[in-house]
Design a protein that fits this description.
Length: 437
């Protein structure tokens, strides 16, 4: 009963926080305090509680360090003009009769390059939604395409913090995971493109694209050399340099480009890396390109820290033992249970990090093979929360692009197809095994 009370109270706090627009780490911190009390009430000493917390914190530290580096990377790419240049390149690729399809593919490409769903929504997503409203394209269909696109990279980019969290928790190789998750999304990606193609033809643009490139050109010197930080990072990734070192190399390249091409002051570099990039207010460029830096990751780091610490308590007190696998599960049934667990933990935690951490803790025993666990977890744990409108995984991107309501929900084709595709793969595997037997 105590466990149910803690879950209900934490769920209520999370829902209130999302509804009121507050910082999520207050709610996860409140939940952590509740479960600390739960642990002490069930006979655990303060020393045992501290040991449980440390188990969770150790898992969080690797991801927190990566988040801080990602924050600096995003800010440096803004300062040197890499992100503005990527946005301008994307705008040139938009075809009026294929706008919805272009919106999905551009968000997918940008999210893969920068590894963050929220960052993609705040840049390319904002631009695309502005165009959709001004040119007669359905905002609901566009919002669904943007939401799916930003999570393509979030799931399989080597820069993705959620993929790094999955790799850390399952003890698998991050680069190998990036390749596997990318391959696993290609068929659903192609099918989703067909869906968005049909809706593009039914909802073509009725006007001209606003000159976003001109607005960005007033604030940045836009040249191909701005792609150097991207090239450096991917070259280092191909050489299998550890991801954090690859990102640090890209940050150094971005800082050099900012000094030599954009004329930034050396004194601007530490300020931007810590506090983020900001242009003078009142311009279109300022509304599109802003943020990043270590400070932008503070809230996310606290959410990861409290979520992992909470998971440490749940493991240490065996609170989730009744939900854990007996080890006899296989194939499709095992995947479906993992997906349902990801959705339920996302519903309770209202964030993707909580869903991944708790699902990994609950479902670990069902998978003797770590790679299979990583694959199923990358579907159910990462994408399951995207089905929940109150989860910040959805709420923040929708707020960023200025879309309210549930009108986008039927147009999450890639999300639906991804979850279905993995189920079909397991079903086909079971059928093949049955014939062989």
């Amino acid at each position: 009963m105590d466990l149910i009370v803690c879950i209900v109270l934490m769920f209520a706090a999370l829902l209130f926080t999302v509804w009121s627009g507050g910082q999520l780490f207050f709610a996860t911190g409140f939940g952590l305090a509740l479960f600390c009390i739960y642990a002490l009430r069930h006979g655990n000493s303060p020393r045992q509680l501290g040991a449980m917390l440390m188990v969770g914190v150790k898992k969080a530290l690797v991801v927190i360090l990566a988040l801080l580096v990602i924050g600096m990377l995003t800010a440096s790419w803004m300062l040197c003009g890499t992100i503005p240049y990527l946005v301008c390149l994307g705008m040139k690729l938009i075809q009026p009769r294929l706008f919805v399809l272009c919106a999905f593919l551009l968000c997918a490409a940008i999210s893969f390059l920068i590894g963050t769903a929220f960052g993609t929504a705040n840049t390319m997503g904002v631009v695309l939604m502005t165009i959709a409203r001004g040119c007669g394209v359905s905002p609901a269909i566009t919002a669904g395409a943007i939401l799916c696109g930003i999570y393509v990279g979030d799931r399989c980019s080597p820069m993705s913090s959620s993929l790094l969290l999955l790799s850390t928790l399952t003890g698998t190789d991050h680069y190998t995971n990036s390749r596997r998750t990318l391959r696993s999304c290609l068929a659903p990606l192609a099918l989703a493109c067909l869906c968005y193609l049909a809706f593009s033809l039914a909802n073509p643009m009725q006007g001209a694209v606003s000159d976003t490139a001109a607005a960005l050109g007033e604030s940045f010197c836009l040249r191909p050399v701005l792609l150097l930080p991207v090239a450096v990072m991917f070259l280092l990734c191909l050489c299998r340099v550890p991801m954090k070192k690859a990102m640090l190399g890209s940050i150094i390249a971005a800082c050099a480009v900012a000094l030599l091409v954009q004329g930034a002051s050396p004194l601007d570099l530490p300020r931007v890396l810590v506090l983020g990039f900001h242009l003078p207010e009142g311009t279109l460029a300022a509304s599109l390109i802003h943020g990043g830096g270590i400070s932008s990751m503070a809230s996310g780091c606290l959410v990861v820290l409290t979520s992992c610490a909470l998971a440490g308590i749940l493991e240490g007190t065996h609170a989730t033992a009744r939900f854990e696998s007996t080890g006899r599960e296989v194939g499709l049934g095992r995947y479906l249970r993992t997906t349902v667990t990801g959705i339920l933990t996302g519903a309770i935690g209202c964030n993707q990090t909580m869903a991944i951490v708790l699902t990994e803790s609950i479902r670990r025993g069902a998978y003797p093979d770590k790679d299979e666990f990583l694959q199923d977890l990358s579907f159910g744990g990462s994408l399951g929360p995207v089905l929940l409108p109150w989860c910040i995984t959805v709420y923040i991107p929708m707020q960023s692009i200025g879309f309210a309501g549930l009108g986008y929900y039927p147009y999450q084709f890639w999300i639906f197809l991804m979850l279905l595709w993995r189920a079909l793969i397991w079903a086909a595997h079971a059928r093949k095994s049955a014939k062989a037997a």
